[in-house]
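In practice, a research group might receive sequence data for several interacting partners and want a quick structural hypothesis before committing to experiments. The following worked case mirrors that situation: the sequences arrive first, and a predicted assembly follows.
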Amino acid sequence: MGKENIRTLFILTICLGIFPFFIRGDYYLSIMIFIGINAITVMGLSLLMGYAGQISLGHAAFLGIGAYCSGVLPVKFGFSIFTAFLCGLFLSAIMAMAIAIPTLKLKGHYLAVATLGFGEIIYIIFNELLEITGGPSGLSGIPSIHFFGYSFKGGVRYFYLVWAIAILLLIFSLNVIHSRIGRALRAVHGSEIAAEAMGVNVSQFKIQVFVLSALYASVAGSLYAHFITFISPPTFGLFVSILLLMMVVIGGGVSIWGALLGAGILTILPEYLRAFKDFDILIYGIILMAILLFMPEGILKGLTVIVKWIKKK
Amino acid sequence: MKKSWIAFLTMVLCTVFISPGWAAHKIGFVASITGPASWLGEPQKNTALMLQEWINAAGGIKGVPIEIMIEDSKGMEADAVLATKKLIEKDHVLVVIGSSTTGESMAMVPICEGAETPMISMAAALSIVTPEDETKRMEASATPWLEVPKKQRHLIFKVAPPDASAVEKIYIYCQAKKINKVAIITVSAGFGVEGRRQLKRLAPKYGIEIVADELYGPRDTDMTVQLTKIKASPAQAVINWSVGPTQVIVTKNWNDLGMRGKIPLIQSHGFGSKSNIKLAAGAAEGVITPLGRVLYAEKVDPKNPQKEVILKYKTEYEKRYKSDVSTFGGHAYDAIMMVVDALKAVGPDKKQIRDYLETKIRNWPGTGGMYNMSPVDHTGFGADGFEMIEVVKGEWEFAK
Amino acid sequence: MTLFSQILQFLFTGLTIGSIYSMVGLGFNIIYNATTVLNLAQGEFVMFGGLIMVFLTAVLKLPLFIGFPLTVIAVTAIGALFERFAIHPLRNASLLTLIIVTIAASILFRGIAMFIWGKDPYSLPPFTPGAPVMIGGAVIMLQTFWVLGTTLAIVVLMTLFFGKTIVGKAMSACSFNPMAASLMGIHVRKMILTSFALSAGLGAVAGIVITPISLMDYDRGPMLAVKGFCAAVLGGLGVGYGAVLGGFIIGILESLTAGLVHSGFKDAVALVILLFILCFKPSGIFGSEEVSKVKKF
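A structural hypothesis for the assembly, expressed as tokens:
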């Protein structure tokens, strides 16, 4: 996996492990839980965008599929939480394949356009299927997670659950990147024609990565549903899809660590901006523009450059 | 290596927050000030700021000032949840007032219940204060329109009139006018969905038949198509349920299609803002709507026990903010003043405040109506908060 | 009201809203042609057009025929500034970053609009006052004729511009091959700036003519951008008149779906059409396969 990645992973795990002992309070834990959930989705997106070079403009739809399966199936149909979770994964995978197979055979960025359409249609479905999803008023009463009697309701427990899953997925992602598959992906991103010439089945890889990224989002969606216990369609709309994109790009799209950083920053930023009351949207927009203009490769690269520059002096 | 260190140090640094605290009674206030429901949250925020000033200028509560900590939920439940957690945990508020919409309030309920903090929602749905199983029992009954809840959530209250009350007022009016075939046109977002549900549920109670059921999206800019279908139907009146600009567009389209006089337009109580009349540029003449008394406070009978409260609120709000008062801002007024009364009586104790709200808010004049809270009713009032109003020459007049 | 009149009514509604999608789609295409960037802030130009016009006529009390060109100039300036300060510095960045910048700009524009005008919707008086016209049992507002007329005028103007004028032909050249174009002495940078300015102007016109019918508020942009984008893809990304046809098709189909099927699915129409086109002819109605393969997007 690469020594430096292992080292960082280790440090990250330790820090997360001791976090609840240093910073007490449900509020901060909740923020970290949201960061964890976003990080999971963003990891998947980063594999798609950074390594396979494809854009998804409707990824929040997969978040929604995971969340609504985990919500609707137990609440309306009495499924167990785990079964509902698996259904979410299954449905996300099928939908991802349904979009990816026709569009990824083509050259160019048709996937982006298709995901835009897909995202909006899923949103409309969530809104219109009143009897099942509760429509615009949302679905409440989603049960919290319990395994064999141990309940994951409280802040600290959920924090560990989310981040344990996030770390596991992080390890998995890093392994993928450093494997044959990862190298194939980067070849594809670099030049599809060259990769094809080298014997890489480009379409197949692109489809697989897209499905994988959809699965990540589904997991995140399920975790979200069980955490807030109430979901409604706007949480999975175009705005969120774009926010996810921003997290990847602003953090530093080409690296998983960058994506994590992006998730962290864009989740915390609105909380920071609470203090600005009416101006918060304006300042948010300004900060985003500033980051994009001055650090177009993302904050991670940008900070690295700054550190190197300081070191030279 | 360096990359990842930086990545994480930045994250660690980001989680450092500082907060001072002072000796004031802290009241948490969550509203959707920006975002899709900002037409609810903005007047609520304004009201909160105004009331904070009034109360503190009069010496606060036995000399202690109140501090209304206002948070913006942006209309999203994740933000409402975070805001509530922050208020309870970081700011140590005594009560949480909010939020403006049903969805967000539903997400906030488990948090307030978990933190044993009383909550007063400014949203409409009964399900906010009624536990799940009780709601299911009422819905499963043979005559759901006659059911009343027998249990309420211990810590949760609300001040906004349920949509059902507005619908009942409208249907009573229709009965009086011998209208028994109506068309409904509703927005496919929270407010409209709830209204549509109530319109359909209560129709049989008043012998009303719904002959057309049209929908439109919250961002739609033209409803001519839906109204055309309604115009071709046997409807004797059309009821629109939405808030925001879509109400005005429906009114304009209805006017342009020449439906006035043939199929009267009845708007929901969300129509209650003069700016809607102005934006409709004359198209709103003859529109009928059930409105809370605060909007036409001057015309209300002086013997009405609400008169003093609503007149003062309306005059002061309009003077200070140079914009029309709204019933939504009134919800904030009612919630905050209830808490203030509780604080005056029992002081800064969460449990006692909750008990006060449940037992001592009786015949309490608010902007929305006369409140009567009880252990089986945490909403306080019903259809009597509304009057049927007609737009005549651009003004609110009592409908005949 | 007979079925025929109903359908006629739906048709007119569809044409009206379709015109707006067309103009947004045209704006998309112009920028796409010059830069292969998808300007997702296109909807905000429409929004600014409407709101600035409201400011000039309602607050400064300027008459219509002065307010109209002033508004267009103002929004054109916004488009040009946007290109100078946000697009140009990033010209070497990846396509994705550029698209994200347009998204960030859209957020910023909305923040500014909310700051200045608040969240309330605003209206404009119709260009010509008067009662609606009855045609075949359908009711047509006078403003609708203005919308359709303006769209037609724009299409004619754009065709002349791109086909006959030097600047227009230069812009087309840039879109086919920027390197070759610059070798021929075309100042590519200026062309890019012009494309943004032009798109902004188009957006402004759309915003001004539609506000009397459907009001305008700070948040109108994103939905228009999505639908205008669908119109552009439907017609063939990069093909000018394709977007116009695409816009009308989407507008009419939306209207007919809402009228004859179920009004809840209206918004899905544009997107279903989008997916449909992608499955069968991704380059759009007028687009050509080879050209779309060569372009970056």
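Before designing any experiment, note the following. The beta strands of chain C are 133-135, 138-140. Chain C touches chain A at residues 85-86, 89-90, 93-94, 96-97, 99-101, 103-105, 107-112, 114-115, 222, 226, 229-230, 233, 264-265, 267-268, 271-272, 274-275, 278-279, 282, 292-293, 295, 297 (CB under 8 Å).
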